[in-house]
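Incident log, support desk, overnight shift.

02:14 A customer reports that sequence design results differ from what the structure should imply. Their input is reproduced verbatim below. On-call engineer (initials T.W.) acknowledged and began investigating.
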């Protein structure tokens, strides 16, 4: 199975949290957290449509200014999703600069910031370059069932966790993974091409089986065009399987309420990115700073039944001990 989502820790396991998730065959990407972003190529940053912020500590949000500088002067609309207070934090960043020359731009940059709160008091605001990035409150989102973003191909759910402040964990779920049988295309005399993306989109949108699908291509024999019903193509050339799941949890205290919420959120994930800042020997330090130990991270991954655990956000106090941190995580994950 060729995965749709391709995740990459921009700063590796030791640097600021910033998980970039590229979409296969699409000019689109998502990101979990906005740590320092100098290692992110601008062309990749420009693909971002949505960024999900766990909380606004500096090492998780300082990259906002990098994106602001990159996007300024372009027509862009970037959505930010995070915990209560994110609107105010984004507004302070934007109002920390002087914007008296924005009237010279012919482009419009918009930040749309949404807050998810466990008590249901969600909020949303927009900041437009055409209005000098003044805050404009708009209708709050519903976020039913903790779903922050729901599109035909995937959804993103959040859980509010405790880091001494509200901190969000996230789950990215592909609804259905669709593969194309290349040998069956060949047998039917059909080409590959952009029409397959359209076909997959119709399937994800649950279009009726009698929906016509136009197939056009050019070869050495000239131009060709065929039209076949969606239901026939779905049965003959597509394979639908369980979608990909990626969970992301960082900066959380280890206690029972967090344990239950994390295990429920990450249940069955293919990839589970989870913080592991401290060795188990430094458990008192982890507790004092509302973080996990490597052993606790591995235990949570095991309880959630994930396929693969990827530890990150290692503390500088364990610099040089990264293999030991990883070993502690994997030992607990394997039940040792």
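02:41 Re-run completed on a clean worker. Output:
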């Amino acid at each position: 199975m060729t995965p749709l989502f391709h995740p990459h820790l921009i700063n590796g396991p030791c640097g600021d949290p910033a998980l970039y998730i590229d979409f296969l065959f699409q000019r689109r990407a998502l990101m979990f957290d906005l740590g320092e972003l100098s290692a992110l190529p601008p062309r990749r940053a420009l693909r971002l449509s949505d960024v999900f912020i766990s909380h606004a500590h500096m090492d998780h949000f300082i990259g906002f200014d990098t994106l602001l500088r990159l996007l300024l002067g372009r027509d862009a609309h970037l959505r930010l999703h995070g915990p209560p207070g994110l609107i105010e934090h984004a507004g302070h960043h934007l109002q920390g600069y002087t914007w008296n020359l924005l009237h010279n731009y012919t482009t419009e940059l918009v930040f749309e910031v949404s807050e998810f709160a466990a008590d249901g008091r969600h909020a949303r605001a927009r900041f437009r370059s055409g209005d000098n990035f003044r805050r404009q409150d708009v209708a709050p989102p519903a976020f039913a069932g903790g779903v922050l973003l729901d599109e035909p191909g995937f959804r993103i759910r959040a859980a509010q966790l405790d880091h001494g402040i509200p901190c969000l964990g996230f789950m990215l779920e592909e609804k259905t993974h669709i593969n194309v049988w290349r040998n069956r295309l060949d047998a039917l005399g059909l080409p590959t091409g952009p029409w397959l993306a359209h076909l997959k989109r119709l399937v994800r949108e649950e279009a009726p089986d009698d929906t016509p699908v136009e197939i056009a291509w050019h070869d050495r024999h000239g131009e060709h065009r065929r039209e076949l019903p969606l239901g026939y193509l779905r049965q003959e050339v597509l394979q639908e399987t369980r979608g990909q799941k990626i969970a992301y949890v960082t900066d959380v205290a280890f206690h029972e309420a967090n344990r239950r919420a994390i295990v429920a959120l990450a249940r069955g994930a293919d990839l589970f990115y989870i913080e592991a800042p401290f060795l188990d020997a430094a458990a008192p330090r982890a507790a004092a700073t509302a973080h996990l130990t490597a052993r606790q991270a591995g235990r949570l991954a095991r309880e959630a039944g994930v396929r693969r655990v990827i530890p990150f956000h290692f503390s500088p106090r364990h610099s040089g001990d990264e293999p030991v941190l990883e070993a502690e995580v994997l030992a607990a994950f394997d039940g040792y």
